[in-house]
Write a structure and sequence with these properties.
It is a single chain. By secondary structure, the chain is an alpha+beta fold. The chain has four helices and eight strands. It has two domains: 73 residues; 121 residues, Mannose-Binding Protein A, Chain A. The longest helix has 124 residues. The relative contact order is 0.08. The N terminus is likely disordered. This is C-type lectin domain family 4 member M CD209 antigen-like protein 1. GO terms for molecular function: carbohydrate binding. It comes from Channa argus.
Length: 274
């Protein structure tokens, strides 16, 4: 009984020492261990927090860098798209410019062609006006000479006088009527002159050079259209017969050379091709 109480008292005494710190060495060891444990836990927590913070910082930095790269890439893509768009617009504008230039060339050609046609039309109009005036003049002349008794044949009007004059006077009369003594250039014209059945002066003479017969227009008489009567020209009996005439009108070869101062009928010719 007493032993039991002793043991309980001893136990209480040890517990009391522990609580009151009377056993100082044991108490201090426990407290140190506790602080070490707590400190270690705190260090672990701090280390974890630091790791998390670093990871977050790295992740944010990486994300910021990635975001910056994305922005730069977006800008590049956007710039490329804009450049492509501008390039297409530029190509379209260039095509439009080329088309306009081509159209301008075509229009210029059409304008030049129209101008050429207009010039041709103006030129033709001028030519037609001249032809109209010439035809009117010829028509007026035709009416004028027809009313005065002239006869039209093969592009010329002919007038046979009703009086007799020298060769020079006969020619002067023709010239006053804007005509001249007749020139014969064909067999048909020769036969036409014979139908009047008159001895008439022609526009033929060798007054400039003896033996060289010329028409009044200056052309030399050729054998092809020569209708001298047999033996003519001959200066008959030594006379100075320098002017040609129709003498033997009943035959085709009807020409004769006569003295220019003799008086005969004459025939004028006014060329007027219609």
């Amino acid at each position: 009984m007493e032993m039991a109480n002793f043991h309980d008292a001893s136990a209480r005494s040890r517990g009391l020492k522990t609580c009151t710190g009377k056993d100082g060495k044991g108490m201090k060891g426990q407290i140190f261990h506790r602080w070490v444990a707590v400190s270690f836990c705190l260090l672990c927590i701090l280390q974890a927090a630091l790791n998390i913070t670093l990871r977050l910082a790295l992740s944010v930095g990486s994300n910021c860098k990635n975001l910056s790269d994305v922005k730069e890439e977006w800008k590049r893509i956007n710039t490329t798209l804009q450049l492509n768009s501008f390039t297409k617009e530029l190509d379209n504008l260039q095509k439009q410019l080329n088309f306009n230039a081509s159209q301008k060339t075509v229009l210029a050609k059409e304008r030049d062609e129209l101008k050429r046609k207009l010039d041709d039309f103006t030129s033709q109009k001028t030519v037609l006006a001249k032809e109209r005036d010439e035809l009117k003049r010829k028509l007026d002349d035709f009416i004028h000479y027809s009313q005065k008794g002239w006869v039209y044949f093969s592009g010329s009007f002919y007038y046979v006088s009703s009086t007799q004059k020298t060769w020079t006077e006969s020619r002067d009369d023709c010239l006053e009527q804007n005509a001249d003594l007749m020139i014969i250039n064909s067999k048909e014209e020769q036969n036409f002159s014979r139908q009047f059945q008159k001895v008439m002066w022609l526009g033929l003479s060798d007054r400039e050079t003896e033996g060289v017969w010329k028409w009044v227009d200056g052309t030399v008489l050729t054998e092809r259209f020569s209708f001298w009567s047999s033996g003519e020209p001959n200066n008959y009996n030594g006379r100075n017969e320098d002017c040609g005439m129709i003498w033997y009108y009943n035959t085709e070869d009807s020409w004769n050379d006569g003295v220019c101062e003799n008086e005969n009928f004459w025939i004028c010719e006014k060329k007027m091709a219609l």
